[in-house]
Amino acid sequence: MKLPARRTSYGVKGAPYTFLIPATLLFLLFFALPIGYAVWLSFRKVRVSGLGLGAGAREEVWAGLENYTGALSDSELLNGALRVLGYGCIVVPVMLGLALLFALMLDSEKVRLAPFTRLAIFLPYAVPGVVAALLWGFLYLPDVSPFYFVLDRLGLPQPDLLDGGPLYLALSNIAVWGGTGFNMIVIYTALRAIPAEVYEAAKLDGATPLQTALRIKIPMVAPSLVLTFFFSIIATLQVFSEPTTLKPLTNSVATTWSPLMKVYQDAFGKGDIHAAAAQATLIALATLVLSFGFLRAANRRNKQEAAR
Amino acid sequence: MPYTKRRRLVSSAVAVTLGATALAACGSSSDDGEAQSGPVSLTYWTWTPGMDKVVDLWNKGPGKKEQITVTVKKQASGDTLVTKILTAHKAGKAPDLVQAEYQALPTLVSNDALADIGGNVGDARSKFADGVWQQTTLGTDAVYAVPQDIGPMMFYYREDLFEEYGLSVPATWDEFAETARKLKKKAPDKDLTTFSANDSGLFAGLAQQAGARWWTTSGDKWKVGINDAATKKVADFWGGLVAEGAVDNQPMYTPAWNKALNTGKQIAWVSAVWAPGTLTTAAPDTKGKWAMAPLPQWDEGGSSTGSWGGSSTAVTTDSGNKAAAAKFAAWLNTDGEALNALAKESGIYPASTSAQLSGAFTTPPEYFSNQPDFYTKAAAIAETTAPSAWGPNVNVAYTTFKDAFGAAAKNKSDFTAALDTMQQDTVADLKKQGFGVAE
């Protein structure tokens, strides 16, 4: 009697693992394996002997941490990280601020043409990043931009948007234009999920629409704000296509403007995949630490507030 | 029962062995480049537009006779293709034939991706100028490619506007600088041309004209001379013009640049023989108003030019039919019919000297119909091309150029410092990879 019972219990225990096999296999094959290979490459390098011409002049050898020390002592990578930090300081607050503002406005009772406005704000998100960058790039070039034509006619100053400080604004503008709609939809969806009784209670207590927005709506959509912030940090650290598209239009954007551009340049411009792999690993680690660090901090605050 | 089971085992073992021998046969055939019996099919990676039509001529003509069929696979141009070839080569799967720019040949050879086809290209050598052919041998006894097209550099200018502003065509670089200043005085919102930092080939060509030798070998060591006296002279010259505002500092190939050429805001362009094609799309409204002259010289009465662009056809070490592939490469770039088709379908300027004055090149390009002797002049200029010296990490020097000179042009700062950065980065990269480097 005992044996069959044990067998069934064993079968039930094993079932979840069996169901997990396909997902685990796919994870290993298409996620863990490529990452592992990149990490493996980052510990190796190519060794050339003499003139390096002909067969057998080139071999792949173990490099230890050489690629990592190289990447960390590379001022260009650090400068790129600083540039992206500056860019992120503009993009993230402006984009999320606008997204929240638009979401609150769309959610208010007096709004007209809400579906159309929502679509209009969201639409730029559907434009591919490269196309958006090209579009804006043309608008930034003084000689072909209609904006400059108007400024010229009005006798107003015509700033060079593709140089120095304004370049950061120009790049941020592209990201804000493309990303606000998506973040707005996320926040707006959270707003719609707030039960109507809450608003009713607020109204009965005599809260103005502004007070409702500040004291009720924003705290209640805080988890969505955390989520959008989290996505925005990752997107900022991975900025690549906008500066790459603007690069041929100006001398101000170097081929190594952002850390990912440097990785691309080293791998495909200079042909050093080993150094590129080490840099990519470092960027992945930094992204992980930054984004999850933020999530933990946000969670801790939530818990403290809940305890209060 | 046991008997049948064993039989099945035996037969499957035989099948496996057969499969293995078949695989081994494949492997051995790809190692042995010379043996070819029966029909051969080759793959060719190229970015030249219209190449499939030219290859059709081969497949229907000489290729049919020799049972060698070539298939064209269209690729991205330049450095992107080099990366792709090297990646494919790492997997042992590079195509039989590839198109490669001259400056990429040392990189490809250094990765052991290109085969020595010296024994299979017949008398191809006699069809090319020495300076062109030398680029495919890298100064060794081997032949790593057959030259296809070249880009001798020339000076293009708006004939009508030069007349309007009372400018004469500069014969020396000093006169070029004077012309730029004179134009600035007469029309402050116009520029003679721009110094663009987004195409390293232009600067390399200008340095080549001045007599620079960026990579040379001594013994088993490379010597890098990017900041040699000749290149410094070129860098100082352009840096000076940019700093004093005599020429513009914005990059080429942007919508703004197109507009500047099309509206006569920039009235000259230091370019190469392929310029008519670019001008046709960039400045369509000024057709027939441009003229071509030899590049200004460093020494009065001199005649020398650099090259910007140009490519060759090479056979990879992964090819299973190197001899057949070399035969095709030689036909493509030396046969009269093939070269005519290349000129017509792809608009290339042939490296083969005999082709430079025949077929499509007896009449000027449509954009330059006002200059009937365009190609006669071009051929004469091509003959004066200075020798070039490429090394195994041209790609590194080129990317450093874009960033260092881009920043220098933007800030109108010292070009010599940018040149030194280029030299240092190139040397550091060679050392890092383990190449022997002579100081």
TrEMBL record, chain A:
Subcellular location: Cell membrane
Residue ranges annotated for the ABC transmembrane type-1 domain, each copy included: 81-294
Principal subcellular localisation of the protein: membrane
Annotated InterPro entries: MetI-like, MetI-like_sf, UgpAE/MalFG_permease
Membrane topology recorded in Swiss-Prot or TrEMBL: Multi-pass membrane protein
Gene Ontology cellular-component annotations: plasma membrane
Transmembrane segments: 20-43, 84-107, 119-141, 167-191, 220-240, 273-295
Gene3D superfamilies membership: MetI-like (1.10.3720.10)
UniProt xrefs under PANTHER family: BLL4140 PROTEIN, DIACETYLCHITOBIOSE UPTAKE SYSTEM PERMEASE PROTEIN DASB
Protein name: ABC-type sugar transport system, permease component
Organism this protein belongs to: Streptomyces griseoflavus Tu4000
UniProtKB/TrEMBL annotation, chain B:
Annotated coiled-coil segments of the chain: none
Keywords associated with the record: Cell membrane, Lipoprotein, Membrane, Palmitate, Plasmid, Signal
Annotated signal peptide: 1-24
Pfam family, one: SBP_bac_1
Tagged with keyword Lipoprotein: yes
Keyword Lyase part of the UniProt annotation: no
Alphabetized Gene3D superfamilies for the sequence: Periplasmic binding protein-like II
Protein name from the UniProt record: Sugar ABC transporter substrate-binding protein
Phylogenetic classification of the source organism: Bacteria, Bacillati, Actinomycetota, Actinomycetes, Kitasatosporales
